[in-house]
Amino acid sequence: MLHLRIISPSDRTDAVVAVVEKTVGTTHLVVLRGAARDPEGDLVLCDVAREAGDELIQELRELEIDRLGAIAVENIDLSLSQRADEAEEEAPGEAADAVLWEQLTEATHEESTLTITYCAFMILATMIAACGVVLDNAILIVGAMAVGPEFGPLAGVCVGVVQRGPRLALRSLGALLIGFAAAIAATTLFTLGMDAIGQFEPGMLDRPRPNTGFIWQPDPFSFVVSLLAGVAGVLSLTSAKSGALVGVAISVTTVPAAANAAVALGYGEFAQMWGSAEQLLLNLGGIMLAGILTLYGQKALWRTQRGRWVRQAKGSATGL
Fold first, then answer.
1. pLDDT at 320 over 60
2. CA 240, CA 207: separation in Å to the nearest integer?
3. Handedness of CA 49, 55, 57, 59 (dihedral sign)
4. Is the confidence at residue 135, as pLDDT, over 70?
5. Which of 192, 210, 254, 306 is most exposed by smallest CB count within 10 Å?
6. Coil, helix or strand for 148?
7. Distance from CA of residue 303 to its chain's centroid?
8. Domains identified in the chain and CATH numbers
């Protein structure tokens, strides 16, 4: 269930209440006249089944409540209410299949913002991966994958394309490219510094690396895994099952590829550098392609399910 806190101008409250009452899957409606002070207006509270949430939010936005008042949405972890259970049963579809597009757009917008913190995590993850590369240490590689924040901008590109939001897509793509460029540049300097103090040496990169040699040698499986990871990542975001993102992060070699490219660049190993760059681009492209197709598929599936439910409801109402 979702909890909506709506601040409505007094002259639009009746319309807001009408929208809430006619939306199947809503309950616990509370109206407090004149309770809001900034912005001034009425406070409307309600709970709604997740699968009906996107429709309700869209109708509220058509009333310009987001511009004239406010709409706040919170996830309800526990609701002990028979009426809430009935509302969830009445709502069409399944909660896990529903996509809250406004929430998804807002989340990806925040995750794809180019900030000092984002760049710091990207640089640190790439440096950790660089240590894993020269030591041929799979544990360090996995740790670097988990630290890397690159899936946020990747998801932002996908949402921006599907939602026809060029600003979000370009903003996310810029954060992605600048983040990796900064990480590769910083890790190249890190490599030279570690070499100067005797911790890294060219022989570490040239020796057989059974645990990490695949990073700069892309093959068809690299693209296949990136596609699967892209699907899993988008599903984890749209279904609010964020725990799956950790698995997505450690299944693709974006950060390790950037690290291997940086170390190879520092030592003039251009064959490894270009191989790592190809691996990086292959993974990024596969994730974005899979993410876009998954979002389009979810949109079409939900539209189909919603249409089927509406036809069934109309048939029941007419006695057919």
1. no
2. 43
3. negative
4. yes
5. 210
6. coil
7. 21
8. 2-91 (3.30.70), 103-303 (1.20.1080)
Residue pair 17/44 in contact (Cβ under 8 Å)? The answer is yes
Task: Look up tokens 């949109």; give the residue.
Answer: 299
d(CA 37, CA 28): 23
pLDDT of residue 102 exceeding 70, the answer is: yes
CA distance 24 to 44: 17
With CA atoms as reference, report the closest residue to 124 among 183, 177, 178: 183
Tokens standing for residue 103: 């929430």
What does the alpha-carbon distance between residue 1 and residue 91 come to, in Å, rounded to a whole number?
A: 11
Measured CA to CA, the distance from residue 97 to residue 308 in angstroms comes to 15
Picking from 113, 130, 131, 110, the residue whose alpha carbon sits closest to that of residue 183 is 130
pLDDT for 91 equals: 80
Q: Is the pLDDT of residue 92 over 90?
A: no
- Strand 70-75 and strand 2-8: the pairing is antiparallel
Give the helix ranges, DSSP H, for the chain. Answer: 13-22, 50-62, 65-68, 82-90, 101-111, 116-135, 138-147, 151-162, 166-196, 202-206, 220-238, 244-249, 254-267, 270-317
Tell me whether the omega of the peptide bond preceding residue 39 falls within 30 degrees of 0, making it cis: yes
Tokens found for residue 240? 């609010």
Phi, psi of 30 (to 5 degrees): -130, 135
Residue range 33-47, pLDDT digits in tens = 999 999 999 999 999
pLDDT for the residue numbered 21 = 94
